[in-house]
Amino acid sequence: MTEENTALAAFNARVAEDHLVGNWIVEPHLASLGDGPKPACAPYLWNWKTVRDHLLQTFTVLPDAEGARRVLTFLNPALPRGTTHTLSSGIQLIGPGEVAPAHNHSMNALRFVIEGSSKLETVVNGIPCPMENYDLILTPSYSLHDHYNGSDGNVSWLDVLDVTLYGRLNQMFFSPHDEPRQAHRNVTLGEGPAWLRPRWGEPQDWSQYRFPWAETYPLLKRLASQGPGSPTNGVMLEYTNPVTGGSLFPTMSCTLQWLHPGQTTRRYRRTTSSIYFAIQGQGTLTVDGKSLSWGQHDTFALPNWVWHTFANTSKSEPTILFGVHDEPAIRALSMYRDQIAEA
Predict the structure, then answer these.
(1) pTM of the predicted model as reported, rounded to 2 decimal places
(2) Residue 188 gets which letter from DSSP?
(3) 105: helix, strand or coil
(4) For the chain, what is the domain count?
(5) Are residues 196 and 67 in the same domain?
(6) Is 183 helix (H, G, I), strand (E, B) or coil?
(7) Is residue 159 within 8 Å of residue 121, measured between CB atoms?
């Protein structure tokens, strides 16, 4: 080390004692960003059978657990917490007659039903929402919600929250309700055309919290019959807020993605991170030359700004993916960018 370098190192140490840092230390890092940010997490896949088997064991190791506790969260191997650097996801299972007690929190959350029932419900701000297979249920920020399984079998769903983002911003609040279950509201007040609402209630009191699969799938199937969709995502539809026409949450968007038999998408990257759940079919996600193979009900994480492709490996059956993305938050901060690789 030269005398000049020794003097600089000593100076850096002195200013560090006063909680200061010279910009010359971070400049090499800035120079490395010419191709954009490094991925904030790793691509990873969680096998449905493995996760479900672990959850079933909780009936033995946590026999008296409340339903809200019977959750396994997907922890990205490249992160201390979270499924991606902004989103957290996991599988929740509750048994017959169990209640996941009412509470609210600052974080936005959603439930995508895997094993549902007409006797399973989430109550959101007093409005009961049945949870049948592949229904999407929203519990927006600070909405009071609880879950009840009135069926005679186990039920499960995919949880996705923006809790990782809220944690990074130090904006997490949580409040339990006085009672395990909240009272049902007169839901007839909230029924009717989306362009009409009672004037004695706040607009958020009449939000749409449930998006039934029975109404969603026929549209997806009909559009898929018209062609291959986009070169980067196949046939992709976004769930939208019926009032604003925008994404369901300020921080998260939800999509359905249909890949035709044998379809492979173009190499593509974007500044958002995503969590995918395989509703049906099989396929592979290839990230920077490494592939993850999914089957029905598997879940996988896709990091931000990585070259990737989707492929349906079946020659006869379509594959359908449910996706959750941090795109609204990234767009709100003017940070969204995407790129298609040259053919």
Answers:
(1) 0.92
(2) G
(3) strand
(4) 2
(5) yes
(6) coil
(7) no
